[in-house]
Amino acid sequence: MADDGLADELRQSIGALVRTVRAVDTMPPGEAAALGYLDRGGPLTTADLAQRRGVTHQSAAKSVKELAAGGLVRAEPHPSDGRKLLLHITDDGRARLKGERAQRARVLDAAIRDEFSAEERRRLADCVGLLSRLTGRLAGR
């Protein structure tokens, strides 16, 4: 494959892989994404979540409302701006997110074991390191 097509092919392949693996999720993608951001980034406002997800404030607020109703997030007054609420993932939310991630990993692991030889699995493991480096470069780390 020519280098000029590698980036696009990689983008398409990774996107398809992510969408396929997420098909096993039991919660809506917006809610899972919000929980993920709260888990990785700590407390955030609804506006922060909307900005990070690249969605409208209204869309993020809808996800937050559902998560709060399910006891997966809790809100408290923002320490420096009383007009805002700071959202925290709860223990139940963290457990739910962990379960979603574990299910994704199980599906992916089964497919890897079924599809690839031992040598191909070793090659794939090498690629994970390369992809992590690429992600770091793109994220400015």
TrEMBL record:
Name assigned to this protein: MarR family transcriptional regulator
Coiled coil regions in record: none
Residues annotated as signal peptide: none
SUPFAM superfamilies: Winged helix' DNA-binding domain
Superkingdom to which the source organism belongs: Bacteria
InterPro entries, alphabetized: HTH-type_Bedaq_tolerance, HTH_MarR-typ, Tscrpt_reg_MarR-type_CS, WH-like_DNA-bd_sf, WH_DNA-bd_sf
GO molecular function terms attached to this record: DNA binding; DNA-binding transcription factor activity
Keyword Isomerase: no
Cross-referenced PANTHER family: CONSERVED PROTEIN (PTHR39515), HTH-TYPE TRANSCRIPTIONAL REGULATOR RV0880 (PTHR39515:SF2)
Gene3D superfamilies: 1.10.287.100, Winged helix-like DNA-binding domain superfamily/Winged helix DNA-binding domain (1.10.10.10)
Taxonomic lineage from the root: Bacteria, Bacillati, Actinomycetota, Actinomycetes, Kitasatosporales
Domain HTH marR-type: 3-136
Matching PROSITE patterns: HTH_MARR_1 (PS01117), HTH_MARR_2 (PS50995)
Keywords: DNA-binding, Transcription, Transcription regulation
